[in-house]
Amino acid sequence: MYRYDEFDHKLVGERVNQFRRQVGRRLQGELNEDQFKPLRLMNGLYLQLHAYMLRVNVPYGTLSSTQMRRFAHIARTYDRGYGHFTTRQNIQYNWIRLEDTAAILAELAEVEVTAIQSSGNCVRNITSDQYAGCAADELADPRMYCEMLRQYSVLHPEFSYLPRKFKIAVTGSPNDRAAVAVHDIGLRMHQNEKGQMGFEVLVGGGLGRLPHIAHTIRDWIEPEHILSYVEAILRIYNLHGRRDNIHKARIKIIVNQMGIDKYRELVDAEFERIRDGALTIPEAEMQRIEQYFAPPAYDTLTDEADFLEQESQASAEFGRWLARNTVEHKVPGYRIVNLTLKPLGKPPGDIDADTMDAVADLADRYSFGEIRVTHRQNLVFVDVRQQDLPELWKALDALGLATPNLDSITDIICCPGLDYCALANARSIPVAADISQRFVDVDELADIGELKINISGCMNACGHHHVGHIGILGVDKRNQEFFQLTLGGSSDQNASLGDRLGPGLPQSEVPDAIASIVTAYKSVRQEGERFLDTYRRVGIEPFKEAVYGPSKKKAVA
Amino acid sequence: MALIRNGELVDDEYRVLSDDETLPASGAVIVSLTRWQADRETLLARAEMPGVWLDSDESPELIAADLDAIGVVALEFPVFRDGRAYSYARMLRDRFGFKGEVRAVGEVLMEQLHFMLRTGFDAFEVTGDDPLGQYQVAQADFSVWYQATGDGRPTAIGLRQAGKA
Q1: Across-strand partners of A82?
Q2: What stretch of H or E contains B115?
């Protein structure tokens, strides 16, 4: 993991002091709420329905056990004993007092965590593949570049007042777990024809009210020029992005209005002006940062297929968990373990302080003291010895973190919804709870396999419903909550936006509709075919019929 | 309204001339882009170097050819949220090598001062009871930065490399 040096500490400390002064001026009445708002937002502090919410960054999803314990401490001391992991590798505290914020930030800075730019019209937390550095399918470890982008973007003098928020995601694997195609900038590491590692650069993806899949703006760029190229994209956006309408201010809008070819022309011209300038990453700095991401002290082991098979025979529950929640590691004898954070009836991603501490202890014992946070609102131990899996599984099961449902129909991404959020039209959490209760049978879950559901309580799309295999969107119709279903969305390397299934349904009918979709899938799927693949093969009609019925369809036609 | 230039409260020798005012016989003026384009020759012939005011949708590229003869470029922040002028300031300094004054006008908040200093502004039109006092507090907020912007202030990478040398 990256560790701060004296300069990182100094800068973050100075930012905390600056914010302390800003909060003081607000409390003294020297700043009014209008003037204070952008200042607090730039430090992740929102005013929500009931209290202030503080959003804290987990840079590219990488967390130490020490940092996790500090999160628990903050939850206990300043909040109501819990926190909430979000879809952008942040943790949010929902019950914060303005007076405490500077103290919280100072306590976080001690363990090298900040809330800098977790909100505001600036470059947000850099996100990445939660398995970075460990996945068997990875081409290159993206974390050192994520860290360089983090440093590059923090308190950027030119780009702190962009037209709108700006999200960057990086993947080093051809199997995209970072959803780079739905980010303002997506970076995909790959080799060019000469075998050199570099980045494909995507631009203009995003969800929200007007969803877009990103365009490739450049096929390949050398790693040492990545900051210069990102700067060129940001500068053109800062100069040309729309500022007349908040809903049309994201980069996706200007890229699509201008056309990707014109946008590329402007960016390339700017890039050529600055390419060999001060942003070229010096070799020494590359090496300095790379050493922080050196592999941990792995034991020399061999894969334990027989042992794991025996254990799975002995316990079907362990077998299910092993098959569903763990992933192949690049080092023999190790495995990646997912902890699903989807407690029934609570917002996905919620975790209480005691569980945070317990997770930190398990990370120390089984995974080199490191924890990853995923954009699907789960946690990961990336470096677990296969020999330790049965023991770890028992410990996780006792904590309620071993439900074998990773990427399944109950591993739902869901925004906080009308229960917490001032923008929402509908309560999304009860819908998630209804669906989870409908699919409690673990054998059925295993049979259905990968089926990702995303729920948003309004068209701002914080639950990323456009890219759910099944997306659910809460809408308000004459003061009543309805839910609109979309099918076939995906945020992976073959990203797509979901197609609308039909008219919105009342909350009570959503679980039945999901069950009908699942039944239709089971009846038409081919051997080994995931829901998404089936959908792409057969199209929307069988599912429309399953939910709305043939008679209704004819009646409408 | 007060003017802080290079960290000091100064009397402003420039006067902002509205488009319907007649050009005075003498005295330094700042004019709009429209007037600049209309009266360029006359303005260049005056004893005082002219100043040009750019609205936030007017790029310095439009006056790039004449920058050697221009004394002040005033970049407007119509609201503090409009961040285009940060890019214009860098364009003036880093791309066009402009050596004259880059003045922040409009809604110039002290909280944004350190960003302005780093992108190349050296003069600030400000309000408030104690603008210089506020300026001094705000400009001391940070002693180290991550980004190299061409202003020569210390960056973390630079300090790290100096430490090794």
Answers
A1: A352
A2: helix B113-119
pLDDT at B16: 97
| Closest residue in chain A to residue B82, using alpha carbons only | A161
Q: Which residues of chain A have pLDDT under 70?
A: 551-557
Q: Which residues of B touch A35 (CB under 8 A)?
A: 109
The residue ranges of DSSP E strands in A353-469, in sequence order, are 370-373, 379-385, 413-414, 453-456
> pLDDT by residue (tens digit) across A361-395?
999 999 999 999 999 999 999 999 999 999 999 99
- Strand B101-106 and strand B72-77: the pairing is parallel
Q: Is B156 on the interface with A (CB under 8 A)?
A: yes
Q: What angle do CA A549, A551, A556 make, to 5 degrees?
A: 100
Residue A161 to residue B83, Cβ atoms within 8 A: yes
Instruction: Give Rg (Cα) of chain A.
Output: 23
Residue A142 DSSP label: -
Cβ pair A157:B84 closer than 8 A: no
Strand ranges in A222-330 using DSSP code E only, listed in sequence order: 326-328
Return d(Cα A72, Cα A83) in angstroms, integer: 8
In the structure encoding, which two tokens stand for residue A503, read together?
Answer: 């008219």
CB A465 within 8 A of CB A472: yes
The Cα–Cα gap between A466 and A487 comes to 8
Q: Is B83 on the interface with A (CB under 8 A)?
A: yes
Q: pLDDT at position A554, please?
A: 44
Q: State the CB neighbour count (10 A cutoff) for residue A370.
A: 21
Nearest to B87 among A121, A239, A282 (CB): A239
Return all residues near A366 (Cβ < 8 A) that are at least 6 apart: A381, A384, A385, A388, A391, A392
Beta bridge partners of B10: B3
Q: How far apart are the CA of A338 and the nearest CA of chain B, in angstroms? A: 34
| Burial tier of A530 (Cβ tally within 10 Å: 0-12, 13-18, 19+) | middle
B47 in contact with chain A, both atoms CB, cutoff 8 A: no
Interchain proximity A282–B157, CB inside 8 Å: yes
Choose among B58, B48, B56: nearest CA to B80: B56
Determine the Cα–Cα distance for residues A146 and A185; give it in Å rounded to an integer. 12
SS3 A137: coil
Mutate to test the interface with A, among B75, B76, B80, B87 (most CBs of A within 10 A): B87
